[in-house]
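seq as requested:
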Amino acid sequence: MAYDLITMGRIGVDLYPLQTGVPLPQVTSFGKFLGGSATNVAVAAARLGRDTAVITRTGEDPFGEYLHQALRDFGVDDRWVTPVPGLATPITFCEVFPPDDFPLYFYRRPKAPDLEIDAHELDLEAIREARIFWVTGTGLSEEPSRTATLAALAHRAKAGTTVFDLDWRPMFWTEPAAARPFYEEALRHTTVAVGNLDEVEVATGVREPHAAAEALLAAGVELAVVKQGPKGVLAVHRDGTTAEVPPLPVNVLNGLGAGDAFGGSLCHGLLEGWDLERIMRHANAAGAIVASRLECSSAMPTTEEIEAAVTAGEVR
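struct tokens:
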């Protein structure tokens, strides 16, 4: 079976405070959720009816068992989620200070299992046959995940749609300044690049949205998607088509996970063959809906919820 979407990258357990506006030392209760950007994108697309799978690794521990069960509950194939003996499943804490302050605390040391993905263990034919293949910048931050990510991209050779989520997390890099050559190599093998202003600057050296989009196209992609926060999203296709869509009004509760909802909806729209503006409007709406909710993976919206938000022009 050819999957609609295979993602490759981060997974972990999100422990989010059930009290908003409270510093972490004073928080007394937390909710436990499936997390990790690549994994959340697969969940978001599955919520929209897509056949999805994720390639990643967990610890050989109870939290790893929890993630397998959560993936199955969300309808995401977990056959390529394997344990790494001796490493703990990552945990991420956050603080929630709406509308725009959500500090993250990653517990991924001495090393996160999802950075132990090995090229020799990849199902390269499944990767090549997937309608969309999604990789992240975090996957390039350490070996053997870096080699595995680039090997998967090279084998796929732009078959179908190949998305590079620029996903810049400087704390995951021992030498952040050395990241750009690996980003440039990944861009050579991808058809779609997605990132915010910080991320496109890391990848291209350019921060102005239109110039950054052009730089991403020059690096080899067919579609550049630049997320501009409160200014909305800019999408530029190599054929000259451009869409610049403002954000939907929303009362933000937790902005974390909005980008992953955007990504899952982006994949859905690409698979549906929608025009660029419609894709961006629906992806924006998906992200806004998740921003209005506390959790990430379990907050991913349905098709009906996204359509309602697009029609209303706001998240209610």
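The chain has a mean pLDDT of 96.
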